[in-house]
Amino acid sequence: MNTQRAKEIVSSPNMTNVTYQGMSVYIQHVDEQNEMARIYPLDQPENEQSVPLRNLVEH
């Protein structure tokens, strides 16, 4: 996923179907400089992690 699209998803009031390694995730924050995203699985909000934007897939 590119940085601009990830930022659009974060700021959107609508839920967008995004996956990371096959898991549905919520994007909390986008780090443009490092091209990373702070995410968590929808069913595990306590399991936050930072991942490369390129590994996120929009469906």
Structure description:
The chain has one helix at residues 3-11, and strands spanning 18-20, 23-31, 36-41, 49-52, 56-58. It is an alpha+beta fold and 59 residues long. The protein has a five-stranded antiparallel beta sheet with strand order 4-3-2-1-5. The protein is globular.
Give a quick summary of the entry.
Helix content is 15%, strand content 42%. With 59 residues, the chain is an alpha+beta fold.
Poorly predicted segments: none
Query: What class would the helix/strand composition place it in?
Result: alpha+beta
| Number of helices, counting only DSSP H or I runs of 4 residues or more | 1
Q: Report how far the terminal alpha carbons are from each other.
A: 11 Å
Helical content stands at 10-25%
What strand order characterises the main sheet? 4-3-2-1-5
| Average of the residue pLDDT scores | 97
Task: Report the principal-axis shape.
Answer: globular
Q: What percent strand?
A: 35-45%
Q: How do the strands and helices of this protein lay out in sequence?
A:
Blueprint: H1 3-11, E1 18-20, E2 23-31, E3 36-41, E4 49-52, E5 56-58
